[in-house]
Write a structure and sequence with these properties.
Distance between the termini of chain B: 42 Å
InterPro entries (chain A): AAA+_ATPase, ABC_Ni/Peptide_Import, ABC_transporter-like_ATP-bd, ABC_transporter-like_CS, Oligopep_ABC_C, P-loop_NTPase
Oligomer: heterodimer
Number of strands of chain A: 12
Domain ABC transporter (chain A): 4-253
Strand order of the largest sheet of chain B: 6-7-8-3-9-10-12-11
Low-confidence stretches of chain A: 323-371
Low-confidence stretches of chain B: none
Strand content of chain B: 15-25%
Mean pLDDT of chain B: 89
Radius of gyration of chain B: 21 Å
Helix content of chain A: 25-40%
Radius of gyration of chain A: 23 Å
Family (chain A): Belongs to the ABC transporter superfamily.
Strand content of chain A: 15-25%
CATH superfamily of the largest domain in chain A: P-loop containing nucleotide triphosphate hydrolases
Order of helices and strands of chain B: EEEHEEEHHHEHEHEEHHHEEH
Largest sheet of chain B: 8 strands, mixed
Organism (chain A): Herbiconiux daphne
Number of helices of chain B: 10
CATH topology of the domain at 2-101 and 146-270 in chain B: Rossmann fold
Number of strands of chain B: 12
CATH class of the largest domain in chain A: Alpha Beta
Region (Disordered) (chain A): 339-371
Number of domains of chain A: 2
Structural class of chain B: alpha/beta
CATH architecture of the domain at 2-101 and 146-270 in chain B: 3-Layer(aba) Sandwich
Distance between the termini of chain A: 44 Å
Chain lengths: 371, 328
Amino acid sequence: MSLLEIDDLTITLPTTGAGRVLVDGVSLTVDSGQMVGLAGESGSGKTVTALTALGFVPEGATATGAVRLDGEDLLTMDKKRLREVRGTTVAMVFQDPMTSLHPMLSIQTQLTEQLRVHRNLSKRAARARAIEMLELVRIPNPARALSAFPHHFSGGMRQRIAIASALACDPKLLIADEVTTALDVTVQAGILGLLDQLRRELGMAVVFITHDLGVMNVTTDSLYVMYSGRVAEQGGTREVLAAPRHPYTRALIDALPDARNLGLPLVAIPGEAATPERRPAGCAFHPRCAFAEDRCRTEVPALRDIGGQRELACHVDPFATVGAVAGAAAAASGAGTASRAGTASRAGAAAAASGANVGPTDAELYGRSSS
Amino acid sequence: MTVLDVNDVVVDYKVSGRPVVHAVAGVSLQVGAGEIVGLVGESGCGKSSLGRAIVGLEKLARGSVTLDGHEVTPLGRGARPVADRGLQMIFQDPYSSLNPRRRIWRQIADGLPADASGARSAGRRRAAVNELLDAVGLAASAGDRFPHEFSGGQRQRIAIARALAAQPAVIVADEPVSALDASTRAQVSNLIVQIARDRGMGVLFISHDLSGVRHMADRVAVMYLGRIVETSPTESLWSEPLHPYSDALVKAIPQLGLTATTPVAPRGEVPDPSSPPAGCRFHPRCPLAFERCLTDDPALVTVEGSREAACWLQPAGGPARELALLEA
C-alpha cells in the first residue's frame, strides 16, 4: 500500500450549464520517502489535486473518486479526524512564507501551538521541540530565533521556518507548493538540499509542485505533467524530461531558456492555456498542438502504459521513437552552439523571432525535435 | 558605441534613527547601442535601486548617469526634459504600471514626441500608436480597449509599446518577464531581443532569472551587496566565471538532463546592507577567501580585455591566487 493513493479523482464546480471540471480522473500514488512532482501551467489543476491530500476540496465543489492517506479516505473522513490528520500525517508549505507565517506572532508561538494541540506537549517540551526543528532547518541561534518575529528574517530563512513549522509534528507527507519560486537561486539551492536531506533522514514523502522544470529535474523521483485537470504523461522525472512523449511536455521544455537553444529565439507554446471555463473538447491540448489529428478534437485520450513505467495520454504519440528524438536533440544543440558564435547570426536569429510574433509555425515549433 | 554611461553611482536610503544603507555603493556600467546587458544578483543586492537611479527615479548620492553624452537629471515634479526621454523603463508588474481607467492607445500616445509626426492631430497620433502596437504583436483594435481586457503577457507588450513611443535609445527593464507564465515569458523575451536588434536600442535587463539572462544578454554584470563584482560576455561568465560569487550563482541553477544534480548553495546568508563586511563584501561566504580579502576591498579591474572582476584572485595565475589555493 502506498502512503498516498489518489484514485480517479474528479472535482467539479457546479455552475449553470455543464459545470466546471477542475480535476478530471486523476490517479496518483506517493510512497514513503518518495518525492513526486506535479508540473503544468497555471490552471492545470496541480494545486487543487495536491490540496485533496489534506482533505481540502474547493468551496462548493463536489469530489468523486478516493484520496487515501495511509489507507484512510480523506474525502469521506469526518471533520474531527481530518483536523488530526492535518499537521500530524500531512502538512503543507506554501509559496509565500510571509503570508503563511503570522506577522504579529513570535516564531515560538507559531511553532509550538500545533505541538501543544496535536501532541499535547507541555510548554517546555514544545519549546525544546521547536528549537530542535529550527536546528534541523539550519536557522542560526534557534533559541534567540524563537523570540523573534517573521519580519526579522530574510525570505529564505522565513521559508525554512515555514518548513520547520510544517515538520514539527513529524508528518509522513509534505505538500510543497512552489516553495522556492519566490526565492533566489542560491537560497533555492539551500531549500532543495534541505528537503532532500529530510526525506532521506526522516523517510518523509513530498509532493512537489513547481513550474520550474530544472528544479523538478533535480529534486523529484517521479513526475506527473498535468494539463487542464488531466494527467498528460507520467513517469520517472529524468526519463520524462529527457525524452518527453507528450507534445505538451515537449513544448514546456522548448519554452525554457537552456544551454541547448542559446542564440535562438525561445519557442512559446502557441495559443492560450485551457481553463476550466473554456476547455476544448477531446484532448484539451489539441488547439495548441502541432500534431493534432481529427480524433484529438473529439476523443479524450486515455492514460495508457507505454513501457518503462511510464504512462501517456496522447492519441498520436509523435515522439514514440525515443532514440531518434534524443539524437535530433543532440544535433540541434550542436547547431545552437554554432549559431551563437557571431553577432551576425544572433541578428539573424532575432530576425527569425520577428516572424514568431503571432506564435511560431509548426515547423519552427517542432523542427528541432522531429527533423 | 556606448549610449548609456553609468559612472560611480551611489544610492543611499536614509531612515531616521537607523544607519544609512548604501543600496548601490559605487557602480559603473556601460550599455552600447543595440546591446542587451543583463544585471543579475540576489534580492536586496541593489539591482533594482540601480535601475531606478539610472532612469532618475532615485536620487544619486554620488556619481552620474549620461545618455548620449548628456547628463540625465533626476525626475522631479515637472515634465522630464526632452533630452532625457531617450531613457525609458519597463516594470515587473504589468498590472500596476498601466492606468486601468484610460484606453490603451491614449496611454501609449502619451509617450509620442509632440512634434515628431509633424502635427498633434489625433489621427496622426493614432496612426503612430497603431504602428507601435503592430511592433509588439498586437492588433490596432487593442488600442480602444482597457488594460483589464488583456492577459499579463499582452499588458507587458503594451508597456513595451508605451516605452517605445518615446523612441528611446536605452530601455531599463526591471524583471519584465518574471511575473509571466513560462510560455508567455518566451514570447516577451523574444520581443525584447528583436526590438533591441531592429532598433539598435540598448537594454539593461535586470533579472534574478539567470537562465533567462543567459539566453538574451550579450554581456552580464553580476551585483553583490551594492557593488558589481564581475562584468563578462554572457558565455564567458557561464563557462568560466571570474568571481567566486558568479561561480556560486551559476552553480546554483538547477539543470535539465539525466546527469543533473541538486545544486549547491553558497554558505551563509546575504549580510545586512547597512553594515557590509569589511574588505571584500563577499568574503564571509567565499570558499577561496584568504587574509587580504578580510581587510582590503578589491576594485573592479579589467581582466582579459573584455572582462572585469573585483576579486583579489584576479587576474588568474597571479600571486594572490596561488597563495589562496595553497591555503585552501
